[in-house]
Queue: 2 jobs
Job 1
Amino acid sequence: MEDNRVYLSNLAGTFDFNEILDIYKKAQEVYVDVLKDQKDSLEKKLEAINDFTALVFDLSNKFDSLVDSSLLERTKSASSSNEGVLTAQVSDYSKAIEGEVTVEVNQLAKNDVWYSQSGVSNLTTGVAGTGGTIEIKYAGEVVAVVDYTTSTNLEEIANSINEQQDKVKASIVYNGSEYHLLLSGADTGAGNTIEITETGGGDLLDVLQIGDSYPDSHYQTAQDAQITVYGDTITSSTNTFENVIPGVKLTVKETGTATVSVKKDFSEVKDTIQSFIDSYNSIVSFVKLETSRTGRLPGETTLSLVQSAILTRMRPLMELGIIDVNDETGLLSLNEESFENVVNENPEEIGNTLRDLKESLYDYLMNLTLPTGAVYSLGNLYQTRINDLEERIEKAEDLISEQLETLRKQLIQAQMIQEELD
C-alpha cells in the first residue's frame, strides 16, 4: 500500500510528523471529552426529569378521575341471580332504585328465516323450468325484485337479492348433496317478517319449495322477546329491555326466571382511589431510586420536595382514615376495612372528603404541570446547560481543527526548509 504521509528529515533520518499531529490532537481533545462527559451526565438527568414529569401527569390524570363529580353518581350496580337467563346493568344512575325484582323470561326475540325444502345439484345450471319474477318484502316493504330465466342459476339469484338491499340476507347452504337457498332477516322482532312471492308466472319458488305454499320452509318465525315483571307482560323487538326496571337495562338470553338486584356499590370509587394511590407510590419509588447515590439524580432535592408537598395535600384522605402510610418506605395503602366502614355507616363522608381533597390538591397539581412549574423549570435548566455544552463542544472542536491545520502547514514548511538546507 502506498504511503502518502509526509516525513520530515533530520540529522538522525526521518520521522512521521503525523504522529506529532495525533499526539497534539489527543491532548487538545481531553478538554472536549470532559465537556462531553458533562453533557452525557446532564442528558441522563434530563431523561430522569422527563420520566418524573410523566409520573406527575399520570397522578394528575388519576386525581382528575377521583375528584370528578360524576364518580359519586355512579355508586349503584345491578346484578342478576341467573346470568344464563338474563344480565342486568345500571343505565341511568339517577333513576335506579335499590331493591329486588323478579323477572320471568317467556321468550326470546328472533329474526325471520326461510330455508328451501328442495335444492339443486350444482350452481352452474339454471334452476327454474319457467322464467318469472320474485318479489321479496321485509317488514311489509318491497326490498328486492329478481327477474330470472330458465338459465339463471341459484348463485345469481342469491347475489341479486343481496345487491339490492341489506335487510334480507340470501345465502346458499350445501347439505352434502344439494345446494339450498337460505333467507335470513337482519333484525329480530315480530314486525320484521320476510315475504317471498312469485309475481311473473315463473316456477322458481315451486322448484325450490320455499314460500307460503311450503310452510315447512319457514324455518324460524320472527318474534318479540317477552318478559313478565310485576305481573305485567312486556315485549321488545330485541333481547334488550330499557327501564322496565327504572334505570336498569336487561338483556335476556334464555327462558327462565331471575332476580334482579339493585344496590349501593362504591367499588368504582374504591378502584379509583386505589389507582390514585398506586400512581403516588410510583412517584415515591422513583424519587427514592433516582435521587440515591446510584440514581440519575443523586442529591437532587426538588423531586423529594414535590413528593412531600403532594402527600401533605392528601391530608383529607388521611383524616378519613382510609389510607395508611408505611413509615419505612413512605408508600401508601388503602385501608379496605376502614373504607367499607365509612361506606356502610356514613357514605356521604366519601363525597365530602373528595371535595376537600380537590380543594387541597387541585391547584398544586395544576401549577406543577404547567411549563412554569417546578419540575418543568428544573428540566429547562438542565436543557439550557446541555445546549451551552453543545455549543462549547462545537467551538472547541472547530478550534482544534484550525490548530491542527496550522500545525500541519508549519511542519510542511519546516520540511521544505530542511530540504533546501540539505
Note: The chain has nine helices and 18 strands.
Job 2
Amino acid sequence: MNATKAMTLLAAVAVGLSAQALTLAVKDVKIAQRYPWNGLVDIDYTVECDDKDADVYIYPVGYDADNNQSVALYTFTGEGANGKAVKAGTHRMTWDMAKDMGQNYNRAAFSIKLHGYAGAAPYLVIDLSPGANAEKYEVSYLNEMPEGGWTDEYKSTKLVLKLIPPGTFLMGDDSTYTSSSDYRGGNAKHKVTLTQPYYCGVFEVTYQQWKLITGTEKTGYGNGMLKQPVRAVNYNDLRGATLGAGWPSHQQVDATSFLGKLRSRTGVTFDLPTEAQWEYACRASSSEATSPNPNAFGLYGMNELPGEWCLDWFQQTLSGDQTDPKGPSSGIYDARVVRGGCSCVWNNYYSSDYSYINTSNKSSTYSDFSRASLRSSYRCYQPHSTSNRTTPNYSWDWSTFNVYGGGSIVSGTFGCRLVALPAAK
C-alpha cells in the first residue's frame, strides 16, 4: 500500500490554553501526497477564531491505530510550522513524511490530527531572578528555542516548560517477572488518552531554582550543584500537607508550599504531572524511552536521576483503557508515585514502563535489584514524608536503598519536574 492510501483523515479540533475565552476551530483539513511521490505531504487547513488578531499555534500529531499510540511529527515547513503562529484564515504547511517516517513507511491505519491553541506558544518561561521575596514573577512565551540553545540561566534564574500536545499511547509493560520478591503487580500495557495539552518542564527543578522560589536551601546545595536537579524533596514540600494532600479530589495546594508560592507569583496553575502525563512525556511518542537527551519532545533527563514525584497515589496494578487518569483515591503504604531513571552501570538499557517494588528483605535481594537497574525508568513509591512513613519493615521503596548498588541514602532523595495545567474542574 502506498503512502497516500496509508493516510486517513481525523477531524481536527481546537483545545486551547488561551487566557481569554475564544471560539476557536481548526477545520477543512485536506491532506495530499505530492505527485510524483517525493516524500512530501501538503496539509491545507482553515483556522476559525472570533478574534481575528489572535495568535494561533498549530500542533500536528500522527496516530498509528495499529499500535494504539500517537506519533510525534517534526519536519514541517510553511504556515504554522515550527512554532510560528498563524491568524484566522486558510493556510498550508508541508510535512516531510519521508524524513520523519521513512521513504517506504507503510502503515495501513495512520492518520493526522491538527490541534490549534490560542495563545499557547511552544515554550513557557518564568523569570525567577527577583527571588523568594518577590510578589510577582514575569511570565513569557517563546516560539522556538533561543539561538544558542538552553543556556545555564534556564537551570538557574528561569524555568522553561514545553507544550505537550494531547495524544494516545500504550502505558505500562507486558514483560513477565516471576521472582517472589517482584511487586510490579498487573502493570500490563493499556491504552491511555490525554485529551488536554499541558506544559512540561524541559528540565527538572534545580537547587538554585528551589532557593529562588522558597528562600531555603535543600540538602546538597552548593559545591557546584546549583544547576543540578534538586534532591531530598518530599511530596509535602512540593504541595503541602493540608490542602496539598487532597489530590485527586481537588488540585489545591498549601499557600506556603513550593507550588503555592510559585502559583501565587505567576498566576499559572503549576503542579506535578500525573503518572500518565509523566510517562507520555517520557516516551515522547515512541514505544520505549531511549537514551538521547533531549527526547523527541525536547525534554531532558527523564531517564536519569533523581526520580521525579507524580501526583498519583501509588497502586500496585495499572490496567484497563483510561482517559485523563488521575490515579486512585488512596494508595498503599500512604505513598505517592515516583518515576524516573537509574544511572547504574547497566544504563545502556532504557524503558519508560519499568515498575519494580521489592517486598522481601533488601539485604538479600541484590540480584533482583540489579535486574531492575537494567531498565532505567522505574516506577516506585514513597510516603509523603519521613514523618508519615507507614511502609512495613519487610518492604523497601527505593528511597532507602542506594540506587548505585549498595548502602543507605537519606529518605526522600527525589526531585521534581513541573507541569502547567488548566484549572481542575
Note: Residues 204 and 360 are 32 Å apart (CA to CA).
